[in-house]
Amino acid sequence: MSHIFPRHAKSAPPVATGGAGCYLHDAAGKAYLDASGGAAVSCLGHGDRTVIDAVKAQLDSLAFAHTGFFTSEPAERLADLLIAHAPGDLDRVYLVSGGSEATEAAIKLARQYFVETGQPQRGRLVARRQSYHGNTIGALSAGGNAWRRQQFGPLLLDVRHIDPCYEYRLRAEGESVEDYALRAADALEAELERLGPETVMAFMAEPVVGATAGAVPAVPGYFRRIREICDRHGILMILDEVMCGMGRTGSLFACEQDGVAPDILCIAKGLGAGYQPIGAMLCTGRIYDAIAEGSGFFQHGHTYVGHPTAAAAGHAVVSAILERGLVARSAAQGAALREALDAVFGQHPHVGDIRGRGLFLGLELVADRATKAPFDPARRLAARIKAAAFEAGLICYPMSGTIDGRLGDHVLLAPPFIISDDQIGELTDKLGRAIDTAL
Ligand code: PLP
User: Fold this and answer.
1) Does ipTM top 0.95?
2) Domain 16-40+325-438, CATH class in plain words
3) Which mutation among 7, 41, 133, 208 tests ligand 1's pocket best, with the greatest number of atoms within 8 A of CB?
4) Which CATH number fits domain 52-323: 3.40.710.10, 3.40.50.720, 3.40.640.10, 3.40.50.970?
5) Which of 70, 171, 237, 382 might form a disulfide with 398, Cβ 3.0–4.6 angstroms?
């Protein structure tokens, strides 16, 4: 009997024993095409020698030194590299161990910034109903996923959630994309008016929504309007690129394509590419200076912040992404995958929408294409697609969407940037069969 506390107590997953390129293998020798990169983690694929060697070399010299006493060369190198390529005025990097830690730190930093700058009345956070920001209490409070939140209500912070920018379902008949961008963003303005803008510290959003709806980008103009609203009311814009950052959408940071830069940016997943657990929160010099010139101490800190071995992995991963031209490859193979999805699913009676950016793409499944009616949740379609794909040797990321409870079934695809044209063919072929089996 296993003593592991598994993710799903009612399932017995196979034992993963190895990985090479776009494939993972289990103990029985079965190969799986990793078309979701775990959950948008494995951007370089599996078994990347450069990253493995960088981690080994770091372990040989210095595995760990507590940041209460030391900084380290890999942490400094990684921070320099990230800031050299970061958008806007982002100037400081706070290294953590994963995505939830990055968003949790962002929420606390926003609050401390206003305390340190003499605006202690600013303590409210606004986020979106279609979002996932992690599973720790603050991050879970920020997220709008009703299913993940439902048991924990009494523990959650009072975060206000507005509608997302979700063109497929929320753009009105006959409404132009430009008008919809403004209407969707103005939901923030309306919420600020309700709350009293002077009580709000920040707005948090994913530029491309991942784990709650399968790769939903905002329409052009939405985030520019959001930026303008945040600036007008003096609130911070926190962008969560834990999933969609690090080249995943065809630009190093997803927000570059929206023409905006945040005050605080969260990254993780592709930053370590699975070789080490690492995430980061980047903030502007203005925010950092407020702390540095104030109390001097960000009231946060976990034992493993700035972990040297994780930082060495992160540095090797970001260097590989940049030096091997993998951002452009994510854009090019993303376009190829999109074309293949359009060819296979464009006329499918139960695929209502195909969307996303770069190698971050999603399908939305519907009972009826004309009315966009979702399937009955009792059918557990997403779970059955996942099982059928896995059986066929394909790892993808099906999920049930949420805006107030369940809305539709989605499949998220986020394969390694090195995916070949043949592997794209294998992906769409296996996915098509898995969907049809599950239906
Ligand atoms: N933010 C986003 C956008 C995510 O997709 C996730 C994980 O899926 C997280 C935060 C949480 O990251 P982690 O699972 O590394 O804690």
Assistant:
1) yes
2) alpha beta
3) 133
4) 3.40.640.10
5) 382
